Amino acid sequence: DQQVKQNSPSLSVQEGRISILNCDYTNSMFDYFLWYKKYPAEGPTFLISISSIKDKNEDGRFTVFLNKSAKHLSLHIVPSQPGDSAVYFCAASAYSSGSARQLTFGSGTQLTVLP
Amino acid sequence: KAGVTQTPRYLIKTRGQQVTLSCSPISGHRSVSWYQQTPGQGLQFLFEYFSETQRNKGNFPGRFSGRQFSNSRSEMNVSTLELGDSALYLCASSTGPGIMNTEAFFGQGTRLTVV
User: Fold this and answer.
1) B88 by DSSP, 3-state: which?
2) How many Cβ atoms from other residues are within 10 Å of residue A62's Cβ?
3) Which end of chain B is more exposed for a tag (fewer CB within 10 A), N or C?
4) What whole-number distance in Å separates Cα of residue A77 and Cα of residue A59?
């Protein structure tokens, strides 16, 4: 049972246009959400995050939107650049036993930005 | 400062064998988490160690085990390898237990192929 779902395995966008990557979750205990970017042969790198007390967080060209009632978040990249081509993972965190937290990842979306 | 180092980068093993993967976290980081990445499954959480103690464990069979040493280096062991264990194994380090913000850094991973 996947608690974090990225239903689009791939997305192609023209350079300069907006890229929108979507993520849905089922666990209402998730209270912190992150996006990671992964290039081939490299480990994932943190991109942007959002706490459940917010509905939007912006960092340069990257904006994450959170809709708690729909259990949905999205990552917007504007404008998209060829260097943004990578696999994007959505991740969610919930408080678990003790003081530890655990990240649950989606299956990833391959973004290709066409020049 | 050096990043997260995983060794070896690539490994080919035969079914039934066992394998040990190594992860050296960033200096000063005491928490190490392990993930398995397979096509279409995203990153599946294996376990997390902090101060030589396993604090969290994902939903994997007992063939998957790990440990952490006093210098925070961590090893992951998989016994009686199966074809389905072929995957990219990623290690992430952070300063404290759990991963909830930008403090998690991933290594490049070990690509394990079971034949």
Assistant:
1) strand
2) 17
3) N
4) 10
Alpha-carbon distance A8 to nearest alpha carbon in chain B (angstroms): 11
Nearest to A102 by CA among A34, A1, A12: A34
Q: Contacts of residue B102 in chain A, CB cutoff 8 Å? A: 46, 49
Whether the per-residue pLDDT at B100 is higher than 80: the answer is no
Beta-bridge mates of residue A112: A12
Please state, in angstroms and rounded to a whole number, the distance separating the CA atoms of residues A68 and B43: 23
> In the prediction, which pLDDT does B97 show?
64
Q: Count Cβ atoms below 10 Å from residue B17 Cβ, excluding itself.
A: 11
Is the CB of residue B100 less than 8 Å away from at least one CB of chain A? yes
CB A21 within 8 A of CB A5: no
Rounded to a whole number of angstroms, the distance between the first and last alpha carbons of chain A is: 38
Burial of B83 (0-12, 13-18, 19+ CB in 10 A): exposed
CB B23 within 8 A of CB B94: no
pLDDT at A101: 64
Q: Closest partner residue to A44 among B48, B56, B106, by Cβ?
A: B106
State pLDDT tens for residues A30-39. Answer: 988 999 999 9
